[in-house]
Design goal:
The protein is mainly beta and 180 residues long. It has a single domain (3-176), classed as Jelly Rolls (Sandwich), CATH 2.60.120.260. The chain is built from 2 helices and 10 strands. The protein has helices at 55-58, 173-176, and strands at 3-9, 25-28, 33-36, 45-50, 72-82, 87-94, 100-106, 110-114, 121-128, 133-144. The strands form 2 sheets. Strands 1, 2, 3, 5, 8 and 10 form a 6-stranded antiparallel β-sheet that branches. The chain has a 4-stranded antiparallel β-sheet with strand order 4-9-6-7, with no helix packed on it. Strand 6 (87-94) and strand 7 form a beta hairpin.
């Protein structure tokens, strides 16, 4: 299978609600983010990326790409964790009612996951399993070569003649073509 980069995810800035801030030292470096918290509880998220956000409430845009249902993707991580093997990535999938329908745990440097057919949104979290320090460079999502195309393609038409507009424009056709 030929793979293509879908998106490279960076840790950009420090935002309450998506970064664990309590007692944490977070340093933004040139090509990475350094995170340290000596009293961090296992099972807590260090950083979370979301495919759906509420801009009015959080003033943040989705950081994750749209994925095709039923397609297998690969998550590649460039992260240094101290002590080793004390952090992991968790992917949570949600339906349209925002109910969690599935959860994947990725512990190695490169792992595959399949986006569920009934998933609507998802969230990727860097989780603590007793870690003290994390130096985060990036994570990358790879998919099949055709998975980087838009989910919906439509031919854009800039104008319609009277009677040739699509069905969804019939209601407003008098506004498009006013009788002179």
């Amino acid at each position: 299978m030929v793979e293509a980069l879908v998106q490279k995810l960076l840790w950009t800035g420090v935002t309450p609600g998506v970064n664990y801030l309590y007692g944490s030292i977070i340093q933004i470096q040139e090509d990475s983010i350094f995170f340290e918290n000596l009293h961090f509880s296992p099972g807590k998220p260090i950083k979370t990326w979301r495919s759906r956000t509420n801009y009015q409430a959080n003033r943040s845009c989705p950081e994750l790409p749209l994925l095709y249902p039923g397609v297998t993707y690969r998550l590649e991580q460039k992260v240094t964790i101290t002590p080793e093997q004390t952090a992991y990535f968790q992917i949570q999938y949600f339906n349209r009612q925002n109910e969690e329908i599935q959860r994947d745990i990725l512990r190695n440097g490169q792992e595959e996951f399949t986006f569920p057919k009934d998933a609507f949104t998802y969230r990727i979290s860097l989780m603590s399993a007793g870690c003290r320090q994390v130096e985060f460079f990036h994570i990358a999502i790879y998919g099949p070569e055709n998975s980087t195309k838009p989910l919906v393609e439509r031919n854009q038409v800039s104008s319609y003649t009277s009677g040739q507009e699509p069905e969804e424009l019939r209601l407003v056709s008098r506004l498009i073509h006013p009788k002179g």
